[in-house]
Amino acid sequence: MNLLLEQLRHWRRTERLIRAVWGGARLVAILGTVLALACFADWTADRYLGSETWRRVLNATWVFAPTAPTAEERWFSDHMRLAHGFRPPPAAVIDDTPGWMHAGMTVGQLALALGLTYWLLVRPWLRTPPIDDLAQHAEKAIPAFGHRLVTAIQLNRPAARTQGMSPALIAAVTREAGQLAAAHNLLRLVDYRRLGFALLVASPVLIGWTVFGLAKPALAGVLLRRQLLVSAEIPRGIQLKNVSEEVWPIGAEVEVRYEVTGAYPRPWFTDRLRAEHGFALPPPTAGFSGRLRVEPDGQPAEAYDLVYEKEVPDKPGAAYFVTKLPPSSINFGFSARLDSGRTRETGRVRFEGRPQLSPDGDALTAELWLPKFLGTQPDGWPFVRRTDGWVRGDVSDALPLAQIRVDAKFNKPVRSARLVPILREGARERDFVPSAGDNFQLPRDIDTDRRSAVWLFPTNEKLIGYRIELTDDRGFTNEVPIRRTVRMLEDRPPAVALLPESTRHPDPENYHGTSTAKLAHEWGDRFPLAEGGRVMVVYSARSEQGVGRAAVAYRVIPKGVAPDAMPPEWQQVQHPRQDWNWPENKKVFRRLPLKPVTANLAAVGNYVPDLGLFEKSWQGLSKFDQFKVNVEFYSQPSPNPEAEPAGLEAGGRYMFEIDGLQKTVPDGSGGFTTAKLEVGDTVELYVEAFDKNPTPGRAPGYSQEARRKIVVTGEEAGVAIKMRDEQNRQLQLQDKLRELAADQADLFRQTTNAPKEPEKK
C-alpha cells in the first residue's frame, strides 16, 4: 500500500511542476510581450512626441487643434498684463514620454503580472487533482485495476467507514491493488507535452529579448530602467549641444547654434570631390536639416529649419547647425530636433538693450571752448560758448583752433566709448585719423558707474560732425548711429566799416553832443579836404576770432595822369587786398599801423562807437585841437567778462594827415618820380584789420568802400563848410516848422473833440 501511495504522490508533484512550468511560460510570454510593447511605446513617444509631424497630426484633429482666443479672453489677458504685469505661463510642451504614461505602463504591467501570476500559477497549483482523482484516472488508463485502486486507497484511510465490511476482504483488495501498482509505473500516465508547449511559447520572447539585449545593451538597459520609473535618457545616435549666446541686443537677428556630434551625414566626401575634381555638388547635409521650436514669451510657438553651417574647427566629428531668426525683442525659449537627436533641456534667449544715449533730455550736450588767443576767464579756463542745438550735441559757428567738449550719458554701463570726428574732403566724408599725439578718441573722463563720458577734441577746418561708438560689457554696439553736426564758422577776415564823418561832440551832456545836434554835425563822407588838412577816418571792426590790429592802407592818385601811364604795379593793383602780402618796397598801397589804445573808462568816459572817441576825449580842448585827437585802435571790452571774451569788436578815429604825402608821376623821359601832393590830387584810403588767429599768412579784412578825398584849397573848403551849414540851418528850420504844425494840429483836435456835458434828467 505504501508503494501505491508513493507513486500517486509523486505523480501529483510532477503534475504540479508541469502546471507551474506551463503557467510560467505563458506568464513570461505575455509579460515579455507587454514589456516589449511598453518599451517600444516609450521609445516611440520619446522619439516623436513634440516633433513637427506629431504636431501636424494633433492640429489635424478637432479635439487637439488649437483654437483662437475670443475677444473677451484677449481683453482679459491684455488687462492682466498691462494693469498687473501678469503673464500666463506658456502651454506645456510634451517633448518627452510623459510621466503619466510611464506610471500608467508600469502600474499596468504590475497589475497584469499579479493577475497572470494568480491565474497561470497559483490557481493551477491549487487546482492540481487529488490522489483519488489520479487513482481514478489510472483505473481508466489501466483496465486491469478495475475498481481495486480507488477502493484500496479509500478503505485504508483512518477515517474510512468500514463497519460491516470484512477485514479479510479489504486486505485482499489492498494486496491485489499493490500487486497491480507494482506491475505498472503510474508516472507513465503523466502528460509531458505541455513542457514542449511551454518551451514553444516562451522561446520567441526570450530569444527576442536576448538578441535585443546583445545588439543594444545600453538601449535595452535604459528602457528597462525607465519601465521601473528610473530617470534615464534614451541613448541617441545624434547629440545636440546648445552653444548659442544667451543674451542678444534688442532688434538683432538671433543665431541659434548647436554643436552636433554623432551619426549625422558628413560632407567630407563632397568637399573632397569639390576640392580635387571641381565637382560643385551640394554637401549631403544640405538636405539634412532639423527643426527648431521657438516659444516666445506670451506668444504662440513657431518652428524653423535647423540647417548645417560648417564643421567645428579643431574638433573632428562635430559640426555646427544653425537657425537665423528674424529681429525681435521678446524673450523666448527654444528646443531642437535633428533626426534621432534632440535637446533634453530648453534653451533660453533674452534680449537686452543696446548701448545708447540716456532717455534724459540732457543726454548729449556740446560746448565750444573758444581758442586761447581770445583770452581766458578770470579763473584761467577758456571761454565757453553754447550755440543753438547745444542740448542736442550740435555745434554751430565753431572757430578754428577751438575745442569742443562733448558730455554724454548712456542708458547702461559701457565698456568703451569712442568719439570719431568726421571730416569732409570734396564730396566725400572720412573719419579723422589722429596723429600719435592725439588721444581724444578715448573719453577724457568716465564716471565710476560707466554711464557717462566726456570728450574734448580740437576743431578742424574740414570738420562737419562727429559720431559716438559705444560697446557694452557684452560686446553690443550702438547700431543706431549717434551722430551730431558741427558747423565751422566761415573763416572770413574781420568785417570793417568806415563810419560817417562827424563833428558831433562825444559827450552827450554837451549841447553839440545831443541827439538834436546830430544832424548839424553829420557829414557822411563829404567833409572837404583842404591842403595840409586831415582825412577823418572813423571805423569799426568785428570778428568772431577777435580783432588784433588795424592799419590805414592808402595811396595817392595824381591829377591828370592816365592810369596806363602809371607803373605796372599800379595798373594791376586796384585794392589793398591785392598787395597786402607783397614785399614792403613793392606795395602800391602804403600802410600806416594804428596804435592800440588802453583807457580807464572811469577817467575818459564810455566809448562812443559811431564817433570812435571816448565821452571825455574833447574835454577842455578848443575846437581846433579837437580835430587832433586820435583814438587809433581801441579793442572794446567784453560786456560780460565772465562769459564772453574781449576784443571781438574794435574801432577808433584817426585824423589822417596828408601833409607830407608824396605822389608818383611820370618824369617825361619814360621814368617815374615823386612829387608833393597838390590841389586836385585824390587821396584813397581803406581801413585794414587783422584777427587774433596766430596762424601765419592770414588775410586781413577791409572796409567795403574806400574813402576818397580830392585835395582842395582852403577857400574852397571854407565855402563848402558854409554851404553845408546853411543847408543844415534850413533843414533845422523846416523841422521846426513841421513840429509847430503838428502841435497846432493836435491842439485843434483837442478843441473840437471836447467832451459833452451830461444831460440833465
TrEMBL record:
Alphabetically ordered keywords of this record: Membrane, Transmembrane, Transmembrane helix
Domain of life: Bacteria
Residue ranges crossing the lipid bilayer per the database entry: 21-45, 100-121, 195-215
Name of the protein described by the UniProt record: FUSC family protein
Species of origin: Gemmata algarum
